[in-house]
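pls design
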């Protein structure tokens, strides 16, 4: 993977796509300047450009004789979307179900297809997308530190970063941590890898420090789900990198992982000693056993899980309707979801929708094999980012709000379908 991000190719479709994809992270801070919903505005800009590029590059591939054989993924996703749309009609309430399906069409579906059919088809686009995502995550990390250091005695202030809570910010930082971990692990695996900003050891040291700072900030945000997802996805990435390391690189990579873990522990202790806030970090507080016993967030989620399962049992074949679960469980016509993607699909779309969703996942990951994992660092990195988003979706996020999840699902579909065209490291 020999890709650098220069000023010339910084301004590209991938930059627009990232601004759209992560717009929920920052759009609330711009409402005084931009009256229209920023995610909607960016989607209306990204869609025509993306589909133009898709048609243009499809014609180029056709002329060169490059073909991608399977259309099953496209059909399954469209069928799942169509079923969700059908099940959004005929409900006792209309405002939330209609807005939910509209957002699914405009945001989630576009994120999936543009990442699948445009970004994942070209290695240069994939690398630019990965590096620009990383830069965005680093920028959010700096904003977190600005707030953290300006209000050091009140760590609860981190609940508001650019108008968003720790869940959205935790997802942004978590994606950045997984990507940067993958880049540094790839660099340790082979001296020929240049998919990072700078070739020198000093450059790698700077990115390592940034990685440590992002992990430290994630531990102070207070979001248990994003941190747990980040730890599992990064552990999976490290395990895969060790399993498929070059013969002479295994020891070096194992040593680097051990050093990183040790330095992270030392950094955390040093930061706590230097800052001397006298207050426990939000995450440490929220994983305390005494706190967990009476945690309203956990109790509410358990209640939602039980209600969603009961709803599924009563409407097992077709579901209560897309966006109908809040009305079923007594919340009325308002934004609410079961906080688990499987339970949400089951209770709102029934076994029919759940079968389509599982078939979609199966059609994508059926192409995964050991050879692809062993030869393509890109596949390992993007699959672990998808893993992070997926684990995160098991405890939070409405189906139509999980834009990042479906984006990385689309990338997984594209790179696994066309991985024979992605050069090896």
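designed seq:
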């Amino acid at each position: 993977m020999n890709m650098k991000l220069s000023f010339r190719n910084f301004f590209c479709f991938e930059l627009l796509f990232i601004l759209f994809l992560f717009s929920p992270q920052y759009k609330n801070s711009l409402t005084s300047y931009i009256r229209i919903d920023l995610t909607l505005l960016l989607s209306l800009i990204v869609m025509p450009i993306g589909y133009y590029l898709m048609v243009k590059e499809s014609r180029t591939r056709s002329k060169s004789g490059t073909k991608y054989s399977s259309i099953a993924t496209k059909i399954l996703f469209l069928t799942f979307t169509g079923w969700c749309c059908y099940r959004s009609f005929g409900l006792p309430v209309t405002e939330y179900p209609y807005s939910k399906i509209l957002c699914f069409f405009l945001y989630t579906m576009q994120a999936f297809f543009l990442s699948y059919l445009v970004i994942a088809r070209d290695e240069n686009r994939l690398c630019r997308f990965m590096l620009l995502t990383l830069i965005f995550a680093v920028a959010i990390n700096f904003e977190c530190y600005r707030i953290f250091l300006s209000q050091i005695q009140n760590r609860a202030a981190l609940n508001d970063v650019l108008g968003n809570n720790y869940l959205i910010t935790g997802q942004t930082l978590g994606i950045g941590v997984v990507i940067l971990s993958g880049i540094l692990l790839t660099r340790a695996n082979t001296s020929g890898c240049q998919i990072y900003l700078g070739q020198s050891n000093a450059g790698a040291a700077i990115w390592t420090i940034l990685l440590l700072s992002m992990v430290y900030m994630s531990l102070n945000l207070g979001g248990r789900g994003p941190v747990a997802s980040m730890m599992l996805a990064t552990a999976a990435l490290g395990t895969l990198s060790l399993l498929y390391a070059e013969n002479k690189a295994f020891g070096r990579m194992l040593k680097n992982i051990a050093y990183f873990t040790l330095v992270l522990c030392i950094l955390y202790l040093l930061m706590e000693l230097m800052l001397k806030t006298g207050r426990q970090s939000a995450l440490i507080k929220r994983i305390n056993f005494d706190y967990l016993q009476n945690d309203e967030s956990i109790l509410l989620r358990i209640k939602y899980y039980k209600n969603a399962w009961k709803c599924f049992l009563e409407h097992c074949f077709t579901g209560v309707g897309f966006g109908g679960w809040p009305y079923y469980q007594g919340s009325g016509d308002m934004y609410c979801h079961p906080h688990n993607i499987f339970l949400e699909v089951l209770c709102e779309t029934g076994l029919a929708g759940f079968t389509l969703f599982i078939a979609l996942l199966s059609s994508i990951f059926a192409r995964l094999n050991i050879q692809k994992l062993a030869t393509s660092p890109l596949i390992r990195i993007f699959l672990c980012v998808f893993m992070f988003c997926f684990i995160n979706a098991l405890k939070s996020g409405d189906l139509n709000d999980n834009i990042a999840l479906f984006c990385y699902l689309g990338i997984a579909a594209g790179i696994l379908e066309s991985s024979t065209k992605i050069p090896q490291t």
